[in-house]
Amino acid sequence: MKHTEDPEEQRDPMEESKESEEMREVKEESEELREVKEESEELREVKEESEELREVKEESEELREVKEESEELREVKEESEELREVKEESEELREVKEEHHVQPGEKPLSRSKTKNIFFKKRRANKSCTCTQCGKSFTTKPCLARHMMIHTGEKPFSCDQCGKSFSQSTHLNYHMMIHTGVKPFSCDQCGNSFTHKRYLERHMMIHTGEKPFSCDQCGKSFSQSTHLNYHMMIHTGEKPFSCDQCGKSFSRSTHLNVHMMIHTGEKPFSCDQCGKSFSQSTHLNYHMMIHTGEKPFSCDRCGNSFTCKRNLEIHMRTHTGEKPFSCDQCGKSFSRSTHLNYHMMIHTGEKPFSCDQCGKSFSRSSSLNDHMMIHTGEKPFSCDQCGNSFTCKRNLEIHMRTHTGEKPFSCDQCGNSFTCKRNLEIHMRTHTGEKPFSCDQCGKTFLCASALKIHLTVHMKEKPHSCSVCGKRFSRLHNLHRHEKTHTGVREYMCFECEKTFTRASDLKLHQRIHTGEKPYKCSHCDKRFNQSEHLKTHERIHTGEKPHTCDQCGTSFSIKSALKRHMKIHTVEKPLKHSLRSRDVCDRLQSR
């Protein structure tokens, strides 16, 4: 029997391969569908999680709002509690008054006694007392808030800068610094403020209102804190002391600024020149140097200033006001710093010492100028003659010798001077004042420099010697003048006759020959002279003064040159006959 094959078993291998390929594709598609399903499931889960996070965020926001509302309600409750207590206290006070109502024939209680009875009852009700400082409060929340002062607890923190606060309201006000919100604006100048009370305080500038007055001097202030600080001037109270130098201050802020002197801290730096400052106000004033801004102007002379305080001090030059007086000699000053420097004359205090020669000074600026003697530094040079100076002010005064400017004039004789100091010294020639005395011979002088030169006569010291001829001098200035005789330098020339001089003062005296100027007048005979020395010599004719005396025969002379001529009689050897005649001359002079 012949076996027949099933048609299904007789399939082509190619068809089988094709079917397997299709099955594989179907399987891959199902796998992809499964992955898509898983991704959609994950997305759904993410969506649900984000929804949950949103709900949590909303809940936390609601909780924060609830917390804020509860905080506000707590504050409102405390305020209402305080108002209720005030109402109860007023009711109690009324009851006390009714209880002690004056009956016919009874002596009425004084107002103070009535108050004492009331406050005794009130203190009995104040059961919330601080165990550390003894302060009492009417409610426990008030006491709890107060205790944070002692514990230092500050539960409310800024999430931007980390600063902490004891109350949420304080944090809310602080946050306005970061947000820049200033809801309270001045309708007159447009300035904005974070607090309403700051605006109210600012408005007093426009209204001029100063409700807080000092009961001792009558000065008024716009804020009670300013009055409290002012009262410390009268009481002398300075509760804040430096633990390094012992200096005391009336304000803690002043102490904090002072401490930067010891620490060397200067947190405020100029972004243009790099100079640093301990206070922001000092930096602001410094910045005006770069900008050239001087907003405060004098309405009398037009001078401008960077700050109002400097203008106020400048105005004293016009008014003549000198509010700071020395309690020892009565001299007055326009600035307190000038008085402080002056007081060092009486105390002899010179806190700034040179580390090279030991010389001391009352001002740091004087020490800085002195140090240039050792370093030889003269940073300010004249562009006309090449002379150099240690400070800018001296160069400015020197330039007047070239420009001929003499802004300071004597109102008695009309003489003019390049600097104020020279005018002050000149005025002593009219007043006769000679405040500087030699402690060895009693001779007096117009200025300290003249006394210093005179003292070399007693010391016989001549520390400066000429390198060419060896001649010695007591003053460096005299040596420099002498050295010009060797170099032949005569830098000052008369434009009238072209004669040259080694000194400007010699040129000045010479020019009076051409101008005919004779500024020095004799008070006895009205005769005039072109030099002060000639006037002094002339006045000795009227006074009979003969200050120059021969130490061998005792003869006196009115001028030094006459004494020098006379001394030749004693020093020069001459024949006997001539010597006898000279001795007769001396005898005759002595007998006069």
Number of strands: 32
Low-confidence stretches: 1-9, 100-104, 106-113, 118-126, 573-582
Shape: elongated
Question: In angstroms, what is the radius of gyration?
Answer: 48 Å
Give a quick rundown of the structure:
With 592 residues, the chain is mainly alpha-helical. The relative contact order is 0.01.
Compile the SSE list and pairings.
Blueprint: H1 13-99, H2 111-125, E1 128-129, E2 136-137, H3 140-151, E3 156-157, E4 164-165, H4 168-179, E5 184-185, E6 192-193, H5 196-207, E7 212-213, E8 220-221, H6 224-235, E9 240-241, E10 248-249, H7 252-263, E11 268-269, E12 276-277, H8 280-291, E13 296-297, E14 304-305, H9 308-319, E15 324-325, E16 332-333, H10 336-347, E17 352-353, E18 360-361, H11 364-375, E19 380-381, E20 388-389, H12 392-403, E21 408-409, E22 416-417, H13 420-431, E23 436-437, E24 444-445, H14 448-459, E25 464-465, E26 472-473, H15 476-487, E27 492-493, E28 500-501, H16 504-515, E29 520-521, E30 528-529, H17 532-543, E31 548-549, E32 556-557, H18 560-571, H19 576-591
Antiparallel strand pairs: 1-2, 3-4, 5-6, 7-8, 9-10, 11-12, 13-14, 15-16, 17-18, 19-20, 21-22, 23-24, 25-26, 27-28, 29-30, 31-32
What does this protein structure show overall?
- The protein is mainly α and 592 residues long.
- The strands form 16 sheets. It has a two-stranded antiparallel ribbon. A two-stranded antiparallel sheet has the order 3-4. A two-stranded antiparallel ribbon has the order 5-6.
- The chain is elongated.
- The N and C termini lie far apart (197 Å).
